[in-house]
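Work Package 3 (structural annotation) set out to generate three-dimensional models for the target panel prioritized at the project kickoff. During this period the team completed the workflow that converts sequence records into discrete structure tokens, so that structures can be stored uniformly alongside our sequence database. As a representative example, we reproduce one entry of 391 residues exactly as it appears in the project archive.
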Amino acid sequence: MTPAARLQAAIEIVDEVIASARDDGPPADAIVTLYFKQRRYAGSGDRRAVRELVFRAIRRSAVIPASGRSAILGLATDQPELIDLFGLPRGPEPRTEGEAATPASLVPEWLIPELSALVGEDERPALLERAPLDLRVNAARASRDDLLAQFPEGELTTISPWGIRLPATTKVDDQPAFAQGLVEVQDEGSQLIALACAAQDNERILDLCAGAGGKALALAAAAPNATILATDTNRSRLSKLSPRADRAGAKIETRLLNPPNEIANLSDWAGTADCVLVDAPCSGSGTWRRNPEGRWRLTPERLERLAAQQARLLEIASELVRPGGSLVYAVCSLLSREGAGQIGAFLSSRSSWIVQDTLGAAGRSDGADRLLTPGQDGTDGFFVARLGRPC
């Protein structure tokens, strides 16, 4: 592909990402992959170059561009050499006089008041920087120091005792340690959520919103003899956990929940869990550096629905924790309404519940507990709170 053809491909892909964001369709990564599956003539260099153009254009704009062409024209205002490719064979049509380009922005204007006060203007560029690749060592089967030798470019993470950090472009799927279940790809912040659960052998631990099970796997590695139940309302996501658990040698039970009957579905766990983890559905604002088009998908109405869902999940979890047990609440969000505000509202009607320390020196105090941010901690953005139920 010529440079002009690569630019035209980027425009076409961004158009698809825009449509997908509006229709709540597949993420940008999946769209890029499918685009090139249908165009086998594109070499690896072409794919890398186009992907880089696409994600630079997405990161540059906090709001949905008018079109892929508008987004790439915006990118060209920062990289004037791209303008010369407009009008070339196989490239975009020539730019017309006065044609609009998408302006640069980091955070949608309506969301700025929602951000935690800890995420100041100076920290916001880090929300869109490319994230590193973090591995979590399966502590039940391997030593982090021993495995580090298998990843020459790796370094130990500074907060999580289980983490190895690699360059963003590293591929690990074909590494023996991955195939043997000795490591999993997991951001350090996500590892710290599992660490906040302080899992112990012989405990009953419930991962209420397990998804594909990354945190349940971390809990099983930390406490191999615990009874761990991973639940979710999405069959497709939850089905991915069992093969991952087999590879890791982890004992994890799974259960599909049927809203609004979660309490009935979990009647055998009512008031008996030593720890309930609620990694709640959220805005994903803490993961924009991995999913920058997430800014395009979020609306005030969607945020309202998410906040209501989070409050409901906290209600459910509170009925499952045994007296003296713990509830760990986490969101990959930097919005106060989803983090400190959510826990503040929960505690306002449950004054006997106790705020427990979660991450020690990691993160910063935000309301009842801790906030991790890309700029301060080098992790994805997470709010984490650990609450103790009175005996």
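The chain has a mean pLDDT of 95.
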